[in-house]
Design brief:
about 130 residues, mainly beta, four-stranded antiparallel beta sheet, 1 helix
Length: about 130
């Protein structure tokens, strides 16, 4: 059984950098599928942010690419999200997820998704104050 758990600060001040970690158990991030970050934006929906493949190759939502970096620590079987220059519009619940290729392709095409395919963490609230 694969389990994912997000962790990081609940509040990040404007202009600062958000860093979130996703700890993975039950599957290896180096041998399986794609490891994705998604956020539930209030009033808007689930926005795909980016992903890192088992090879280490990264994919990003074009609207967020300039501010987003996904990395991994293979020795700890975890991957991370960095989002720079945050504003109150970045306030959301942030999720990490394990996806297959089809789910990744759907996210790349749609950018805003409607179905939680694969395995998801419980999510973590991040607030950027005004």
């Amino acid at each position: 059984q694969v389990q994912l758990r997000e962790s990081g600060p609940g509040l990040v001040n404007p202009s600062q950098t958000l860093f979130l970690n996703c700890a993975v158990s039950g599957a290896s991030i180096t041998t399986n599928d794609y490891w994705s970050w998604i956020r539930q934006v209030p009033g808007k929906g689930l926005q795909w942010m980016g992903a890192i493949a088992s090879t280490g190759y990264t994919y990003y939502n074009p609207s967020l690419k300039s501010r987003t970096s996904i990395s991994r620590d293979t020795s700890k079987n975890q991957f991370a999200l960095q989002l720079t220059s945050v504003t109150p519009e970045d306030t959301a619940v942030y999720y990490c997820a394990k996806w297959d290729h089809a789910a990744l392709n759907t996210a790349i095409a749609a950018l805003w998704i409607t179905y939680r395919s694969g395995a998801w963490g419980q999510g973590t609230q991040v607030t950027v104050p005004t």
